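Deviation from plan, reported transparently: adenosine-5'-triphosphate complex.
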Amino acid sequence: MSRTDVLEKLVSLSKRRGFIFQSSEIYGGTGSVWDYGPLGVELKKNLKDRWWHAMVRSRDDVEGLDAAILMHPRTWEASGHVAGFTDPLVDCKACKGRFRADKLEDARCPRKPSRQPGQHADCELTEPRNFNLMFKTFMGPVEESAATVYLRPETAQGIFVNFLNVQQARRQKVPFGIAQIGKAFRNEITPGNFIFRTREFEQMEMQFFVDPGQPAGGRTDMEWFEYWKAARMEWHLALGLERERLHFHQHGPQELAHYARAAFDIQFDFGGTLGFQEIEGVHHRSDFDLSRHQEYSGKKLEYVDQVANRRYVPFVIETSVGADRTTLAVLANGYREEAVPGEPDGRTVLGLIPALAPVKAGIFPLTKKDGQPEMATRIAEALRPLFPVEYDDSGSIGKRYRRQDEIGTPFCVTVDGESAASDSVTVRHRDSLQQERVGVDALVGWIAARVR
Ligand code: ATP
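Because the crystal trials were delayed, the predicted structure below was used instead.
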């Protein structure tokens, strides 16, 4: 199977098996908004937990935060979003389609999907005009412009405005970081490709504050930038994403924001027409954000280095990754269809690493007699408080394996004719199809060692 049709297969698998549903589907769906079903919510939660663990829990130089979605409207003036968070929009007068002028090559002409907008004889594209991507709403009972607030288009600003709160409350010294996971909203002109580009999504962002002048924590600002670039790539590789499907894309002079010292995207190859696309940005943002908030709020946002007797506005190294886009990368990376001797339909496998898999083990009785269901139920009940497991006694054992393969369950535990006498089960590995016998007493430790 080529990678071209993987997205289509994932949309169908996601709905069928309860990973991801279209939002408000019974009303015809909401444009590019998706709901995570029972397995999707586990998968995305596992992904977010891994990020939180790597970025916050396992470090003493990064603090966690959960800032509100609604912020003072001046925040977005200071950040530059009110004036400049725009995409160039073109309309087609012929088909009434709307497209991003800078991404025409990624869009399809609704009349002739093999061409991009503007390439069909009837296309009538307007001149590009700027369209602000922020969703507006009103705070309080009066719908007037003075009450306008925005749904945050990124989580980062909640970190910047809390810089001193966190630093002082936690007595952190530069260099240190603040991390958070949360929803962001962008009124994208051309959302699409399933959960790749949506109007409501989750970001996992970390801002690392460094000394602008001197090495701190053993590294200069640029060395910290290189450190985070490498660390973030390692994190994606540890998710199981194939090395050949990941690379860095450096922002050239056209892409680089005027205040940025350097910027790289980590791109993943989604295959097909999507190809390599950004899943994370690692940016050296200089002192732009804190200086702007200092200017707009009138409040000092300086760090006081009491040892060196200096005060300064730190530079910021940002790592910003989409939870949904990375979930899609993990799904696209893991999806495969395999031939199985004697089975014309073969099998569909989601090759997720055990730590990400929504269900860690399927628990089956081989038959419905000889006390096998009772023993399998006891095992499932003992494991369930520790890991998500699924008891299944319906259909042939082959069918039950296939159901688990398709949702990425790494292990299937079967209670068989030998189990009662030997107090053991067979454990079948999803990828190698190898089976091994494990004592019931050792099962918890056996699974725990492989799913963490
Ligand atoms: P793009 O160029 O794809 O629009 P961006 O450069 O605007 O992305 P950033 O502002 O750097 O993206 O956001 C950081 C991360 O947030 C992205 O790498 C991506 O994973 C995620 N992200 C951004 N916009 C969306 C969206 N509309 N839907 C899903 N994820 C998104």
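The longest strand covers residues 200-210. We consider this an acceptable substitute for the interim report.
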